[in-house]
Amino acid sequence: MSTVISKVDAKTNPPERPGVLELIAPFWVSEQRWRAWPIVAILLAGTFGGAYVSLWANRLLGEVTDALIGRQWDVLWPALVMSALAAIISTTNTHGREALQNLLELRWRTWLTAQLLREWSERSVFYDIEREGLLSNADQRIADDVRLFVENTLNIVLHLISVVVNAVTYIVLLWQLSGVLSFMLGGTEVRIPGYMVYLAVLYALCSFLLAHWMGKALV
After folding, report:
1. In whole angstroms, what is the distance from residue 143 CA to residue 134 CA?
2. Would you call 71 helix, strand, or coil by DSSP?
3. Whole-angstrom Cα distance, residue 120 to residue 118?
């Protein structure tokens, strides 16, 4: 987006290169905010709802497993039906959030592209660009840069929120399932509550370090 501005001759007095927040913030306080913020609210609700459905599906899986082991057929079939329902809800939630994110992305892209093209054309910068051959297809470059900027921004923010929500949710679940690990060490009883959480974090850290050590040579 700033490529067009940065290559213009100094006599056109181009503005300073905008920062990331200067590119993000205007849309969310513009006339489009009444359409954008409700979509964000629905996306966040879907993220939290998806975490709850995942917990529900996890509990149902435990019920199905226990019913199979104990041959409790009267418990098994209702649990299977509810598991199928949880899978349908989870799939619908995932695709629904994807569609809403695409809609939000389209509206943001449309608004930001129009704003940048308006600023570019109002200063008649395109005359200098065309005359001096500084840049070709500037309008297309603006549109492509806006698409990448908006798409990556939304993906990073929404994915980060989803990761945090799911991490907190499953840490709480794992802490509750772990109980307390007790053992004797040097004649002293050691008690570790939620020990499986620490094991899971240690396992993830070791896997990350091993993958980095083995994969850095390929990179």
Report:
1. 18
2. coil
3. 5
Nearest Cα to 60, choosing from 81, 46, 88, 74?
A: 81
Distance between CA atoms of residues 169 and 166, nearest Å: 5
Name every residue whose Cβ is closer than 8 Å to that of residue 35 and which is 6 or more positions away in sequence.
107
Query: Which residues share a beta bridge with 180?
Result: 193
This prediction's pTM: 0.74
From 39, 11, 162, 45, select the one nearest 103 (Cα to Cα). 39
Q: Give strand pairing partners of 151.
A: none
- Distance CA(20)–CA(1), nearest Å, equals 11
| Highest mean pLDDT of the ranges 7-11, 61-65, 104-108 | 104-108
Q: Cα–Cα distance between 82 and 77 in angstroms, integer? A: 9
201's CB contacts (< 8 A; 6+ apart) are none
- CB burial string 39-73: b at 16+ within 10 A, e below: ebeebeebbeebbebbbbbeebeebbeebeeeeee
Closest by CA to 166, choosing from 38, 65, 57, is 57
Kindly report, residue by residue over 40-79, the tens digit of the pLDDT. Answer: 999 999 999 988 888 888 888 888 888 788 777 777 788 8
**Is 188 in a helix, a strand, or coil?**
strand
pLDDT over threshold 80, residue 120: no
Are β-strands 180-185 and 188-193 bridged in parallel, bridged antiparallel, or unpaired?
antiparallel
